[in-house]
Give the backbone structure.
Amino acid sequence: SMIHNKRAVWAVWLLVAAAAAIAGRSADNSLRASLSRVHTSAQASQFSSYTAAADGNVGLSADLRPFELVTKVLRIVKDNYVDPVEPFDNQKMAHNAVKYMVASLGDSGSRFMDAKQAKALAELAEGTSNGIGAALKIREVKKEDYTDQQLTVVAPLEGSPAQKAGLLPGDVIDTVDGKWVKSHDPYVQAIKLAKDFKASIADRKKAYKDAEALNKNSMTLEAAFDTLSTAGEGELALKVLRRGKPLTVKLGRARVSPPAVTSRVLEGNVAHIRMGILTPKAGEDFQKALGQMRGDGVSRLVLDLRNSPGGSIKAAQQIAGSLVPGAKLGAVVRSKGARENLWATRDPKAARMTVVVLVNEGTEGASEVLAAGLRDAAGAKLIGNTTWGNAMESTAFRLADGSGYTLTTGKYLPAKGADYQGKGIKPDAILPMTPAKIGTADDGQLSRALSVARRPAA
């Protein structure tokens, strides 16, 4: 559990440090050599917007006294522990050190990934999924006695098993093949009753047995991410909670690479461009699509960001650059209060046009930055449902063996309006509609957007 993980953080980390010292290596040089920062555009298991990390080495404290201390303890353990301690699995120890250190931050956006999970993340950043085909994220929900870390669907990918099975943004994955996805310590209630002098012995025993049974038939969030975001044979049975109500779905896993951009011209000479994952090439693809339609005389645009689970912030800047070149889209605040403004790129072929943006609960990360930026810089009207509410910047770091971790490294702030972290961006016109109707004849949100786009300019 997270509680046990936090207690083990320093013990595991210091053992790794000691192992490095015994091998006669400088901990500073060893870690500098093994760590390399990599830029990815998006995240699968915790899919969000990513930014390139600055080049250079990772700074480490010059105070190595803890290393010396634990080296002594480790030698005593090796010489005196009743059972053989060798061979030490240095890779496993190192992975656990990184895993527990990152987990100890208590931030669901910062997590360790093994090589397979890191590869799945990198592939999804490019718009490809080998799992159920859904962007997934941990959403933290505060309970009376604990924080529930719910594995939640941000958005299913177009044509994916997740979409075909009917998964929707906001669905909480409760079980996978009958195993509970461990969203919190199952012993919380038992511990609470153990401290309650009014509780009967029978109730205390039952609470403990229930927790023990639940824990035995569970899987970690990491294992669930692995199962749902990587290739595998056979069908999966998921129990999801949709607005608190249980729903059972069965689906397989497949390799899908939906287009990042789809476009068409609708009645009234209005361009409709729908964005999926904002891959690194999505900005260029958007510019090409818009340029072709402008050549046909289109001067009004409905930009559809519904079920667009973020991705590359640079792609968002490029898209905005075709509509409001050089405009300020907001800012990002990073470590130690460092602040950097976010600007739309300058597309030499850009031309002012009426813009309406469609958003919903599956609009997340970089797509939220884009929606807010166009609202503030271009006066675009937002129509649909309140967005996901992720204003955090995440950076992916890769280790030398292919594993890696994500780290929350900043927070996006809109140029105007309030901070939307955890609350989402509220549209100018709220029009409730299930995401299942997107692209159908009953797509009332698109109909409203077209109506607004066709209005004469003030």
In short: Residues 16 and 92 are 9 Å apart (CA to CA). Confidence is low (pLDDT under 50) at residues 1-62. The chain has 13 helices and 19 strands.
